[in-house]
User: Fold these one by one.
Assistant:
Number 1:
Amino acid sequence: MAKLAGPMEIYPLLPGTNCKICGEANCMAFAAKMAEHTVKLTDCTPLYEEEKYAKNRAKLEELLRPPVREVVIGTGEKTVAIGGKLVLYRHDLRYTNPTAFFIDIADNLDAEAFEKRVKAIEDWTYVYIGQGLRLDGVALRCVSKDPQTFANAAKKLIGLTDWPIMLCSLDAKLLSAAATAIADKRPLLYAATVDTWSELGKIAAKHDLPIVAYAPNNLSDLASLATTLQAMGVHDIVLDPGTLSRSALGTTVDNFNQLRRAATIADNEQVGYPLLCTPISVWADYKEGDAPELTKWDEVLTAAAMIVRYADIIVLHSLDMWTNLPLTFLRSNLYTDPVKPVSVQPGLIKFGDAGPDSPVMYTTNFALTYFTVESDIKQGNVDAWLLVIDTEGMSVQSAVAGRKLTAEKVAEAIQEYGLGEKVNHRIIISPGMAARISGETEEASGWTVKVGPRDSSGIPKYLQKELWKEE
Ligand code: SF4
């Protein structure tokens, strides 16, 4: 694997003044965080402001350059960054910039249908473990085959949304017309081929636009296209090696694998760019009378396979909850930091009109645990307090086993969040999975511990029947 720079390679190139401007205690601490890519080099402002550090800055930028370059689409607050990957395998560090989902819209839709689809793309959302899952951009397809219609639709689109846009046509004249019309919005151009690179490369270079190089199932043409575009002055390139038919999905996966391995393991700069996949291609085989659900299913399967196999951006047609929900779940799980469990803020949470006589429970700050318990309490429609204990994002069972949830921690949290001042009683309900520390907790806290249900789905019944008050 292309080696990630360690702190001892980074440190000698920093100013070494320990000025703390970056927010770290000294340059060594900054170097250690830089090696983990949890801070940005630009946080060391002296490096950028003082000319004497220019040489070292250039060396550091090269040393820390991700093997897959980052490409930004759009302008303003709604930009989306793709690529920027540092490693082939997530467990080697973490994946950055989650796969961006762009949904297509045809340029020849009537005004009402056009607006409705843009709104549906923007409104698609689902709350999952406390995060709002969303889509990322709109892919405007030239179906009209008319440059004026395509350019007008692009202008109409930027009037309706400030989301990142991708312009799609393999005809250079059509693509150029729309690209020129909305160049200041920095759309992603799809796509330059072996036949159109000259005309489209000039447009991308002139307006500094990101562009896709497309050579289906031909990796050497694709690498040449990327090299040529770069030589023309195009900075932001995305590679599309083709999303072949469902029966050739294995070949599609192989092509993506080869490109990403070449970039990250062999450090081949020629292909060190984000990868684009078009699961929407399955609709090319759709015929009048076919069941659309089967094609949607094919699209989801292709997208899921390619999200796992390094696609940095995908283009989809389906906009149903059932098609995009599993894909956004998959993306969310793949792009979490493998060494940092997803957690919530510890503290004391009030449900309903909880008051001095209301029950008090405790749980851990592992996000999945917290949101499951939260949902079960809300379903029970009861007034209650929930003490969320910092277990470094571990679930109840793992935290008890790993000594991250101990009697002392529960006692400390009771004190820290002033539980004694919120309620008149001194009874706390422990999760069923933490039953084995209930005796120690009583000793450490002075509170009576009632053991609640092992599964939080039992909480509503437990609270409604006021079982916690029984002797
Ligand atoms: S801002 Fe730069 S010079 Fe100052 S402590 Fe941080 S790394 Fe060192």
Number 2:
Amino acid sequence: MFLKGPEKYVAEVENLFVCPVCLGEKHKKEGVALKFQDRELYFCRCPHCAREFSKNPEYYLRRLEGKEPFSGVFGSDFQCC
Ligand SMILES: [Zn+2]
């Protein structure tokens, strides 16, 4: 289905983001944009995620790219607010 009409499916998700810390998926209208270096990153609105990100931004960016081992949001190495 995607290959027959990818534009439709891309349009459905183009305004979505994944919070780098809690990995929650939201619409950009429901998040907050913060500048990091020359990038604009979207976070969920909880203060925990932005604070945690600022402690180790490179780790969270690498995790988003799948370059860090991660056992999932219910794994033992994850804490959220
Ligand atoms: Zn979050």
